[in-house]
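Q: Joint fold for the lines below.
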Amino acid sequence: MSATSVTARAGERDLAPLHRPNKRWTRFILPGFTWLMIVYLASPIFVMILYSFNDVPIVPVKQTPKFWGFTLRWWRDPFGVPGMPEALRVSLQVAPLSAIVATALGTLLGLALGRYRFRGKAPVNFLIFIAIAVPEIVLGSSLLALFIKWPELPLVGAFAPPIGFPTILLSHISFSIAFVAVTVRARVQTLDRSLEDAAQDLFADPVTTFFKVTLPLIAPSILAGFLLAFVLSLDDFVITNFVSGGTSTFPVFVFGATRIGLPPHVNVVGTMLFAAGVLAAIANVAIQSWRARR
Amino acid sequence: MAQIEERVTAAAVRRGAYARHRKAVPYWLMTPAGLYLLVFLVLPMAILVYTSLQSGGIFGGLRFSWAWENYTRGISTYKTQFVRSIVISAVVTVSCLLLAYPMTYWIAFYGQRWKSSILLLILVPFFVSYVIRTVQWRFLLGDSGLIFGPLKSLGLLPEGFRVLATPFAVVAGITYNYLPFTALPLYVALERIDKSLVEAAKDLYASKWQAFRRVVWPLSLPGVFAAFLLTFVPATGDYVNAAVLGGPGTRMIGNIIQETFLYSVNYPLAAALSVVLMVAMLILASIYARILGTEDETLTAAI
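A: Joint structure:
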């Protein structure tokens, strides 16, 4: 054993390794803080679920800060509020439609941006960036400005969509495209190109290569983009409120209801949507790990 | 043999033909979405600017007249709300960073194989609709709600104590709602840091704190910028929290824009106020893009 290695060893003894077992109480600060944050973030959800059982005695029924006792009344009739089933139906129609269109358009855009170098790529990237960073109120008000102006425009004026369901759908597609595009772009960028080259070496034409190799590889990101677009559409209030006219989506209905008093049914439906979201997330994780194992 | 050769040449010829078309492929791919975004993102913003320079009323008809007074009048009339929005948003951004940084730091550095599970736990509450989530804070922070009700009945708080309808409630609400937009870019930036760099710093006798300040913090700055961009500007324009949790004295510029657009129907004025927000966003976004580029993972992974 040489002298240098001995000194190195001696030095090691003074220097603590990165993950030295910290015996002091300070080691609990960060994890404790993180768990507190998780409780904090989940607290409105607990309230939502708890208050879906709130036995409020007031007529017409509305939620109060006071918890009166347990009841299953609202769970037996979750849609028993005038206006809510219609609003929920609009939301559940807009969300899949806008998600499908946004996924189709966004996937192609994501492919173009993730795969190719071309003139005009930087402005397009910046456009997507803007679509994500823009405050919802700006997007909502500018879309409303467009829909108001549209009938006055030359030539296309006759094709102006009536303000309501069509304008909600058009707006939701607009803000979802960018989110799908970046999700797909991120996956395409990390794709192993040699797999496609291999397919072409085996005489596959580009179309076959795309459907047999590229598409299966980026499919999870397309699905993730679709789910994201779906959730964004289902959740959106600010933009929808601008372009909806007299039509209500579920969030618009809830916002309107907060002014006169929230019916407990909203908590029930909120809990149901939450449960569906959690189940979808669990299914997604399960499928991913199942795919990874194969 | 000859057959194979023939197929290989055929494939090569085909590939040449594709190569010629290849240049056009990205343009074909991006045309549908590009056109859509031109019509439903760029054009609306242009029309918003156009509307903001119109004059006249809804009954006499609107005319384009370079009416800059919409801006001067809008900003001077609603100076209070502008300043309030910026102050609230600044407080929110700082609180979000202070809350999210230690949390994401711990997950990224010590989360080990539970990283994504903990992250999911953080994001799960946001499956619930924005408006519903915000309304729940009304019950949590209400005068006789779940937090203050028991404290008041125990005599720990004066009967008149209230949080709802104060700026604090609005700040708390926005902080809660925008936390994921702060946490995700931070997490992505921290997660990307090569942990051996910290070890190297410690090998060079840096203390824990020095290693953080000189290595981890500078490397996480792109995430901090992205978090700032995704929190500050949207929070300035937020109006749901002020409407649900605030009172008459906490109205933000978003509330004014929404009311002027939808209720007083003064389109030029509302558009001018909205354009101010839009320009602020464009400036910050351009600075960000200039420094870090638009393809940076930190921002894209944030969604």
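Q: Anything notable?
A: Chain A touches chain B through 100 residues (CB under 8 Å). Confidence is low (pLDDT under 50) at residues 1-17 of chain A.
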